[in-house]
Amino acid sequence: MTPFELAEPRSLRKAVALLDPDDPTVRPIAGGTALMLMMKSGLFRPSRLVSLRRVERRFSTIGRTVDGRVRIGALTPLAALERSAAIRRALPVVARTLRTLSNVRVRNVATLGGHLAHADPHLDLPPVLIALGAELVVIGPAGERTLPLSALHAGYYETVLARDELIAQVLVPPQAPRRAAYLKCTTRSADDWPALGVAVALSLEAGAVREAAIVLGAATETPVRLGGAESLLRGVAPDDPQLRRIGDAAADEAPVIGDPQGSAAYKRQLVRVYVRRALAQALAP
């Protein structure tokens, strides 16, 4: 690796001030699980890294907002989320998803904010958190702003964040009384990059679906919500033939792409099957 400057500010605002909106070789680093690999391969050669490991501890804790949402500091390690009793109670689908997210060595180091900002479409948590209606608190030179997580990803490894903005917190409505599920298909080990990830969240009323969210990852360039398939669910109490029709509609609607995990045709068939399975799992008593 080429030499670079390492800054270790004591606050998130000071970290923002050390970033340069005009210089792409200046980057923040939290867990560094992706960035260090890029540096070792020579793909990225920083002039300065701004380490976030010494900033205020509140950005690596889990709590509740006054309106009842789960507040997760962006620097919270994924392993801390996996072990958190508060997450298991309020967001059980997140806790389940983390069991096969990469491996324990990565989860011990990787942070939630870095996981989301990396914008790799194969990541597991973005579809789950989007389906649950998560929002981000972002800090920049002008102060804080809030945006839906669904608006974060602009393309393959691209986000809408400016180079001098950082994710500070993630706000997630509690899962209950909604039913939620996340399923993924991997072509090798269970913790490998998925060929497809499907997250669903459903609100039921008198046995019928009142609101639905179906979000795909890994098979698309960015996490994608399938509004057409969702509309087929609303107002009905789905049986197996209906779930198959919704799976077919999802496969027709999804803007799938091929990659080393599978061709576009293969992934479209996965969407057909896994959307049905995820919905069935969420609806199971």
Task: List the keywords.
alpha+beta; Uridine Diphospho-n-acetylenolpyruvylglucosamine Reductase, domain 3; 14 strands; single chain; 5-stranded antiparallel beta sheet; 11 helices; 4-stranded antiparallel beta sheet; 285 residues
Q: List segments where confidence is low: pLDDT < 50 over at least 5 consecutive residues.
A: none
For the residues shown, what is the average pLDDT?
A: 96
Number of helices: 11
CATH top-level class of the largest domain: Alpha Beta
| CATH architecture heading of the largest domain | 2-Layer Sandwich
The count of strands amounts to: 14
- Distance linking N and C termini: 54 Å
Overall body shape: globular
Amount of beta strand: 25-35%
Q: H/E element string?
A: EHEHEEEHHHHHHEEEEEEEEEHHH
Rg estimate, integer Å: 19 Å
